[in-house]
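sorry for the late reply, my laptop died twice this morning and i had to redo everyting from scratch. anyway the thing you sent over, i finally got around to it. pasting the sequence first so we're on the same page, its 635 residues, then the predicted structure underneath. double check i copied it right bc i was rushing
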Amino acid sequence: MRLLFIHADRFDYRVVSKAIESPEPLEGAGREGSFQDVLVVFTTVEQPDEQAAEQVVREAVESILDVAGKVAARRLVIYPYAHLSPQLASPGPSLSILKALEQHLKETRVDVHRSPFGWYKAFTVACKGHPLSELSRTITAAPTGSRERAETQKERVSKALEAEEKLESSWFVLDPEGRLTPVSEYDFEGRENLAKFVRYEMAKVRAAAQVPPHVTLMKRLEMADYEPGSDPGNMRWYPKGALIKRLLEQYVSERVAEYGAMEVETPVMYDLHHPSLASYLDRFPARQYMVESEDKELFLRFSACFGQFLLIHDAQVSYRQLPLKLYELTRYSFRREKSGELVGLRRLRAFTMPDCHALCVDMDQARMELLTRFQLSLSVLKEGLGLSEADLELAVRFTKDFYETNRELVHSLVRLFGKPALAEMWPERFFYFILKWEFNFVDALDKASALSTDQIDVENAERYGIVYVDEKAEKRFPLILHCSPSGAIERDVYALLEKAYLAQQRGETPTLPLWLQPTQVRLIPVSERVLLEVLKVADRMEELQVPVRVDVDDRPVTVDRKVRDAEVEWIEYILVVGPRELRSGVFTVRKRSTREMLQLSLTDLADAIRTETARKPFLPLTLPRCLSKRPQFPG
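ok and here's the structure:
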């Protein structure tokens, strides 16, 4: 069972229509509800709960009462909510468990109301916004006979993660002029996106109360979906989404190669009891997947650090070779994120992370390298993904001691970014790094996600025995920078889709950068009689020596329907082709992003595509060229 708690000033709902064939009968006030100062418990009953209903209800009651006590809530609403898990229980058992949960809570003399099950409902919620106003819990149904074993096999939580949850920080806004202003005193007028980001970061609540827009888009565009046959947070990627993902991976890897990093490949699992790894686990704020193999306990990597550090430990390194840069594109890294946070592509348990480390002689060299990588990361997001400064918010996090001795470095980062940033100051060092920065994207639900990031690591060289030989032939520990120029590839796709949705909300055309569009040119024959000639047009486009993904809509539907479908697929160039166009060689081209109708030859069109996709990688789409030959994936 998944529980998402929202402590609200006000919560209203009303029944709209049936969500399942046989929903719970409505009785009087069940059709709608209006509540003030209430703890709303969004509740999802999962398949395993059916076999352990009593245990699940008992533990859910304990969790709900615990949260209600912490936020001093005297009124509860149990709200059935199917969007917290891809593994839903059947309707009958779900309703029985929800009724039992309601009854047990009433027996504790709590004022509790349950909204009806099996209906689509419109709701509004006014979250109070205090640090405990958004929380999540997962109730695990233990199969018969496994309860005792489950008690002994607790999820391993690192000391760094425990420290992060208790961390006391000071929060500021740092502007390009170097002014450090406490958040409580800063005037956010004209900086609404920064204000949203600051509120999100300070609340430290990552769970989502509703489905973010990019989830609907990733399904409708046949890009990605949940995989019910796997652990939550592991996605399936359809051909279009897989293409976008591979293109992003290739682009980031090429940019890192230009920067001068050496690409390596390392294992995905490591010995839990390796002395260097065991201590590092407790310094990294992440939850781990554990694996048993013969007589070893292993964990799945949550970054490329382990492999790269063990690899460079065995190399001979001179100060003349520093800064030395290593890079790996991890397919995949794994983190057991909390289940209530696993919504769409924003936060996953298995993800692709470009991970680049640099070994530096000293702090002076680390400063220069950090600034270079900062500009590289900004360029990747702007030139590659098409994100602007308006789409991004910068966070810089540091210890108080580091800031006092390196103010100019921190100020330089904000000046390069060009607008005020969130600054988090720690009174002392909790982690292995003393400075960390991130570019963050704020989505349509006002949730923020880190994309590019870099850190100055002062611990791991010594922990892993990584040394270089200095000019006096003495061994020294380098500083290590940890950078992902793009952040997780899946999260980049999330940001692109959320950006497109926000553009649509402003009345603009939602789209993807042309180089990432699975189909860039759609040819639509006016009739079946010209289909063979249109297929030859597609061949000629590819012969013009411009990388282009072109397909042909040969389905037996109207031309208007084909044009509409191409628009819905976000295809940039749409050409309706008939005898006149075939004779003249001049085509009326719909340019979707600008809503223009252009008269172009194939050569002119190829030149326009070449200009828009310059310095970007190209891969062919693995779907058949003709739409009639393609399967339809769930959307």
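DSSP finds 18 helices and 28 strands in the chain.
thats about all i looked at so far, will dig more tmrw
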